[in-house]
Write a structure and sequence with these properties.
The chain is an all-alpha fold. The chain has two domains: 2-74, no CATH class; 97-322, MetI-like fold (Orthogonal Bundle), CATH 1.10.3720. It is built from 13 helices and no strands. The chain has helices at 2-28, 34-38, 47-57, 63-74, 89-124, 129-143, 146-160, 173-183, 186-223, 226-233, 238-275, 281-291, 294-322. α5 packs antiparallel against α6 and α5 (89-124) runs parallel beside α13 (294-322). The chain is globular.
């Protein structure tokens, strides 16, 4: 296992370098000049001053030189300075990252908590009313774009009914939970959590639909296996057969898809954060593109890539815990 983890870390580093290079190329293809945007509020600046500013920012150097310089500084924890804010790009991203992680993690927990039981129930009663209802939900869930669902939720739940906030974010959820426990007042938690409900639902709906149908298919396949029939013939309780034998083997494909869906949720949060004015990395990335703030864009991509790679490594370890037959390393 240790050898496998070391190999995966080396692979992740190579992938990260590739991501940085591709992003370094793509950001240069964005139309517009960051110096022109910075000087828009100062019409008195001369072309010579603009060119001097470009040289100070390193925008006139060859692309390969910019890339090698960036990688060298990144290895020392320096991801550059924001062109707009004139401060560390890494500090700006780290300031916004907890909000994005909070939204993504809540959406994933919501998706798994609903999708797995729904998939199991529909698999145990194929062709029934619950199965048909699950199929309808699955089709709608993958058909409605998350941003459209978010707008509909805002119009219906927030504007028409006035039940939840339209946009914004309260206290960090961890802070709210701590304060609620210390004061014994659940209203403190609710005051922050209510901002999270609609964005999490909009982000998680399509993931719920995919995972529910995947769990259903995997459960139907597992229930047909001989080891499940043998466990039933031994007289084990129905719940033990379903949970310990069928579900434990059926959940492995779902874990694989969940690892891929983390990247989907992270990218989907970029849209949802702008719909709900959620102050996370996704909203920052859109603003950075509009400002042509190249260091912030690269820092956002790097933070997202590292998060995605770390979660995939964690899921590979979870495979081993779920299915002891899986072995890593040389055979």
């Amino acid at each position: 296992m240790l050898v496998y983890i070391v190999m995966r870390l080396a692979h992740a580093l190579a992938v990260l370098l590739g991501v940085i290079f591709v992003v370094s190329v793509l950001v240069k293809l964005i139309p517009g000049d960051p110096v022109d945007i910075m000087s828009a509020g100062n019409p008195g600046i001369t072309p010579a001053q603009k060119q001097e500013l470009r040289e100070q920012l390193g925008l006139t150097r060859p692309l390969l030189e910019q890339f090698t310089s960036y990688v060298g500084r990144a290895l020392h924890g320096d991801l550059g300075q924001s062109i707009r804010f004139r401060t560390s790009a890494l500090s700006i991203v780290l300031e916004r990252l907890p909000a994005t992680c909070e939204l993504t993690l809540t959406a994933m927990i919501l998706a798994v908590a609903i999708a797995v039981p729904l998939g199991v129930v529909t698999a145990l009663r194929p062709g029934g009313i619950i199965d048909y209802a699950g199929s309808i939900f699955g089709i709608l869930g993958v058909s409605i774009p998350s941003f459209l669902l978010g707008i509909l939720l805002v119009l219906f739940v927030s504007v028409d009914l006035g039940l939840l906030p339209v946009a914004g974010r309260g206290e960090a959820l961890t802070t709210a939970i701590t304060q609620a426990i210390m004061t014994g007042n659940a209203a403190v938690f609710w005051k922050s959590f209510r901002f999270l409900i609609l964005p999490a639902i909009a982000l998680a709906t399509s993931v719920i639909a995919w995972n529910a149908r995947l769990t259903r298919s995997a459960m139907l396949e597992a229930l047909r296996q001989d080891y499940v029939r043998f466990a039933t013939a031994k007289g084990l309780p129905r719940s033990a057969v379903i949970v310990r034998h069928a579900l434990r083997n059926a959940i492995i494909p779902a874990i694989t898809i969940i690892g891929l869906q983390v990247g989907y949720l992270l990218s989907g949060s970029f849209v949802i954060e702008n719909v709900f004015a959620w102050p996370g990395v996704g909203r920052l990335a859109v603003q950075a593109v509009l400002w042509r703030d190249y260091p912030v864009i690269q820092a956002v991509v790097m933070a997202t890539a590292i998060t995605f790679l770390a979660i995939n490594l964690l899921l590979d370890i979870v495979y081993r815990l779920v299915d002891p037959r899986i072995r890593y390393g040389r055979s």
